[in-house]
Amino acid sequence: MIDTNVMRRLADGMFVPIVHRELGDAGAAALRDVLSFLPRLYSVLSPEQITGTLYVLRFLTPQQASPVLSGCSPVEVPLDRLPRGVAQTTVIEVLDKEVARVWENAAIDVALASTIAVVYRYRGDEGFVVRDRYCAIPNPAVEHLSVFARPTFSSLLEALQDYRARLVRTSTCHLFRMAWETEQRVFFASGPEHHMRRSLCQFLYSRLRDVNVLPEQRVDETHPVDLKVTWSFTLSEALIEIKWLGKSRNGTSIVEYWDARAREGAKQLVDYLDWYRTTNPNADTKGYLVVVDGRRRSLSATTTSVSQADGMYDEHREIEYNPRYEELRSDFAPPLRLFAEPKWTADAGAGS
Amino acid sequence: MADPESYQASYDLLAIAERLERVWDGVTAAELHLVAYVACLLAIYRKRPASDWGYAFIRSPWGAPFSPDLEASCNALRVGGFLDARTDVLTTTPSGRDFLAFLSGGSQHGWRTQFLDGACSSALAVPAGAMRNAVQEEPSLRRSSVHRQPRPLLTAGDTVALYEQFGVLAEVVGTDVSDLMVPSVVWLTYLSEAKRLEEQRLALAETGSLESRHRVD
Known about the structure:
The complex is a heterodimer. Helices cover 30% and strands 26% of the residues of chain A.
């Protein structure tokens, strides 16, 4: 069933058809050049380093910069010498032959520029300005500030470590945030594993090249592993089991899991690996235990906020595994604990 | 030199790699198969039969489009020194770029350029991961996903559903749009969006069922 309305909405609102509609084939060609340029720019300029406004332009015909730009003189730079930060207003003109023209602290007439050039703008969000109309670019992976920054990982472990540091630590992933009962991140919501699985699944899919990430794949007769990652063109596969520690609250009903839960997860993953190997003898399979750690000290049934001391009490308290499967078998990766901070409050006393 | 007509897979591999390698710091084999498949779909959008494309695709065991001919050509290009393989990514060598220029000069491959351009531009415009996600939703791959074994893609049965989607697409973006990046990006985003809406619906249903289970408990 084709949803014509959705397709029409996309055709009316997306930057590619808009640029083509408003600026014609020359606009589409210039857009292509900008799209080729942006990933290269973001390989040297982290979007986090843009505190001002960045414009990237590609004129439809050459040598039209002067009418729309004023301020200091531009500098022509090779692509490996592009700016590493943007504090005020920086304009980069995409040129041919692997060079760009950079205006620092520039004044730009955007209304005029956007009629004779394809104009990309980054200012916290990103989009294209076409004939003075701003067209935002939807970002399906909001943890990365630009859709054109492609911080892809070559290894699953690297990706998981990045996921821990940037998405789980302060719950910046919108899918992961749904796992919490409130914004204070004290208790998990009921059934948080569902949101954790979706969050990690989406992250891995967008950040690992050439993988397929499948949620809840059955590995034995009754049990599904949380995620299965398969790589194209190889027999490599990863089984990821996610466990959470802490307390989940639904009204007055509280479910809590502590360190033993992680150890159960390790044993469960080993069983999955053994079973999986019997049914898939040719697969090169490795198991990853991902433990989302939301442990808090001194929570009562009515707690709504925690102090820093209570909230961060378990930050560095590692889980003791016995046995340590990673030392006994090569198909078991060292378990990864992802500590998720609460939003602590200065006046929250212990146990409040 | 052999008849250039037989080099369609090689031409496509080199053309795609040459367009994307600098942007992505090399191209993986899976990305080459994926972009080539999108290019083939765009040829179908322009009413060319799939059989014109010169090589066929199957749904691979890992669920993505795969062409045995592309794979064979890729190996031959690596052995011949036209593609360089470092770690898991491929880049063109100077000989590869010369060979591409030679093939581009003939009349046999020129017609493919607009489709390859459209597919490569889409890969630049659509967020990473979304293109893979979208292609898995196209009718032929979706239809074949119920089969465990690799299955030919873009067979006569599949293209009926595809033409239906493309008919709506052409009506929405306009039949006079010559740059294939436009319909390609709209269509791929549509497939990705349709999947996202479906997942959202399922997630809401699951959350609702979890909550009602809790109430019963």
